[in-house]
Write a structure and sequence with these properties.
Shape: globular
Largest sheet: 13 strands, mixed
Strand content: 15-25%
Radius of gyration: 25 Å
Distance between the termini: 56 Å
Low-confidence stretches: 1-27, 488-497
Helix content: 25-40%
Structural class: alpha+beta
Number of strands: 15
Length: 497
Amino acid sequence: MAVAFSMAWQQAAVKDRGEAAAPERAGAGAARMAGLVAFRRELHGCFGRRADALSELTDAILCAEGPVRSPAELSVEPEFRRGHGSVYDALAGGRIDAARLRRLQVAAMAPAAAGDPLMFGIDVTPLARPDAVFADEMVMVQVRGAGGDRYLPGWPLSVLAGVHWGSSSWVDAIEARRLRPGEDHADATVQQITDLLGDLAATGKWRAGDPPPLVMLDAGYPATDICHALAGQPVQVLARLRSDRVFYADPGPRAPGQRGAPRRHGQRFALTDEGTHHAPDVELAGESARYGKVRVRAWNGLHQALDRSGRWQDYPRDKQLPVVKGTVIQVTVERLPDGRKPPRDLWLWHCGPAEADADLVDLLWKAYLRRFDQEHFHRFAKVYLGLDAARLTSAEATGQWTALVLAAYTQLRLASVLIDDLRRPWHKKPGPGQILSPYRVRLGFRRLRAHLGTPARTAKSTRPGRGRPRGSKNRPRARQPIYRKNDNARKLDSKVA
């Protein structure tokens, strides 16, 4: 059993990052400016048709006064030099190379600290459209609120973002992939991780010999299934567990003279039943200013008992179901920052190329706390950048809008050390070397944009068309069906909620 712990580890990482921000602002401004200009130029290259309009629409998102309310309102911004009809024409008729844009976002990521893995979070955020009876490819999405969770028609987005150490809530926005009707959630996650690994290798962000990237998931993901699908790839998966999960230890060697098929599962390990917990392989303890006394315990080599249902119902009958081993981590704290008592234990599942030791366990539970920065990103993108403000009827056009919002956020992050602080009188003054928040960076982006220029060409002068032919009538649009998850036949329900 390894017993070693230091609560100052993450605090040291925060201090190093904060101290590095001030010299970068002072001495590397020209390089960061050139990097931002190069990103904007490459972003323009990711746009196919309507490239100039899409580029200026992204600038309008960044430079608009206040939150983005609708695409039409952006047409009156000086950065958008076209008519209001060009906004929707660009979203409906434009083309964006999603693979090239994702690789560009990966190339713009901030590097990890020496010896630490690159950290990523994947989570689903909904774009609810309860009244959009003509919108296509909608499914039922879970919307959380003060009155409880609700299920409404909309589009679910699987958002992939990079997270970092430190007190800042900045993330690396990489991709927001829309989950299509009938698409398996786990399959989409596996594909996102596989594409990410390819982009990391292609851009040089990860090389052989570096720590495997760490991907963190919430409790709604089938962690065992995802780990089995990613077996053999250089990646670590860290997922939160529901407290009702049950695992099993290795059955151990077979007793002499024992008959019958060998056992596949050993001692039972129920998360909520301490009587089934054997001695941990790693045990850590320490003090935290935010959480009080902290105890972390880890058990290696545990696995779940799979059955031939759900994702495993089509597994070959002539083969035994796989045994996917990993590490179960329990985090117990004395208190929570918001004062809720008593705090519940945090259970995590880790699976990677190497077995978790004391140093890795210490990194894992602290890294998972950084995953919640992604929630701040979702909120900022929706409230200020208008992620769910497009109100379009086309799912494909909504995907174009989502890509523009993520590209705009990346430009804010790259400009975070180039912006003059244009805080309002009621805003708190930042400390020395402190990185400005996304909201504060956006306040000053219009001034910076004047020095960046634009890769978009000036709009050509045109004459207005003749309009609708006299005597023509509107054709009623057909209502679009909504896919419901509980439809076992995977058919579209023709009724609109």
